[in-house]
Structure formats: structure tokens, C-alpha cells
Amino acid sequence: MANSRQTRDKNGRFKADHTSRNRAIGIASIVGLGAAAVGAALRFGLLDRFFPAIEGHDAPDLALDQPHPGPGDRAPEAFRPDPTAVPTDAERESLRVPDGVDKGFMADDTRAEPLATVS
Asked: Terminal CA-to-CA distance of the chain, rounded, Å?
């Protein structure tokens, strides 16, 4: 028995019913468009604020629930600088200000009065 909702063309043949096919194509188009939009947003970094990069490690000494170290607290021995160490010529050269670089706003200080000193 034929489908009662199916219509016939001018020659009396049944017309093809494409509603389910059209619905499937529409759903596939919407899913594809959504996937393309998410892919483009990821590519151009539009979702980076929702997925922050996790770099390094936790710093427990900077945690808010830890008390701030006082003047009597010292760094572990392995992290203390050697006060008797003499810098090598290469280290001293690496810290030198390059030629042609502005040495700061105080380099050409021409104020008439001297800076106030705390006594």
C-alpha cells in the first residue's frame, strides 16, 4: 500500500519524499558549522581565557595562607649567594650598560637644588 501523504507528479508517478534526507543534511550542516566555528576560535586564540596555560610549578612560599617570612628567616643554604665570590670578567661585562643606551632620566639631571637626604 502506498503512502497516503506521498504526492504524484504530472505523469502520475510518485514524487520522492526528501524530508528525512533534507533534515539529515541540515543537521550535518549545523554540526559542521559549529565545529568550524570552534576550530577557528581555538586557532585564533579566542578561547584562551577559558583554558589558561599551566606553566611552572606551585610556589608554596607565595601562598596567601602562609605567613610572610620575617627578618630572622633566611633562605636555605643552597639558595644563598656567596658573599665572597668575585665576578668573572665575562659576568661583569654582561652586566655593563651597552653603548648608546639611555642611562635613565637621572643621567642628565640639571636641577639647581640638591636632592634631599634623610638623616
From this structure: 110
User: Is the distance from CB of 60 to CB of 66 less than 8 angstroms?
Assistant: yes
pTM beyond cutoff 0.70: no
Tell me 49's DSSP state. T
Residues 6+ apart with CB under 8 A from 66: 60
Residue 15 C-alpha from the chain's centroid? 56
**C-alpha cell of residue 73:** 628567616
**pLDDT tens, residue by residue, 32-49:** 999 999 999 988 888 888
**Residue 41 CB coordination number (10 Å):** 13
